[in-house]
Amino acid sequence: MERMLSSYEKYNPEDFIHAVTLDTEIASKLFRKLKSVALLIDTAKEIEDFQSIGVQCREILIKLSNYIYTPSMAGVDEQPKKSDFKNKAK
To answer: Which end of the chain is more exposed for a tag (fewer CB within 10 A), N or C?
Structure first.
């Protein structure tokens, strides 16, 4: 537990967002949404609360992938759909 707590204390989610988005204008938007999701996690009690959090996290991932992904990344393969985070991440 101490090792996990130690690594958690060193983790800064802002660093991750800035690294992935290269400090572009989308970084602040995504981080703001992630902060609101983090607040919801602290207060969630019902299954619907957690489902809502999951939906919001999925939307954040889709926005991030749509921002980063370029059609040339697919090469000769079929282009993934606009909301297909898994294939865009490959």
So the answer is: N
**Identity of the amino acid at 43:** T
Q: Say what the pLDDT of residue 46 is.
A: 93
**Model's pTM, two decimal places?**
0.65
For residue 16, give the nearest of 40, 44, 35 by alpha carbon.
35
Burial environment of residue 36 by CB neighbours within 10 A (0 to 12, 13 to 18, 19 or more): exposed
Cβ 53 vs Cβ 37: under 8 Å = yes
- The number of beta carbons lying within 10 Å of the beta carbon of residue 87 is 15
Does 52 have pLDDT greater than 80?
yes
> CA-CA distance, 20 to 17, in Å (whole number)?
5
pLDDT at position 2, please? 61
Tokens encoding 60: 């954040």
What's the chain's length in residues? Answer: 90
Phi and psi at 81, nearest 5°, equal -65, 165
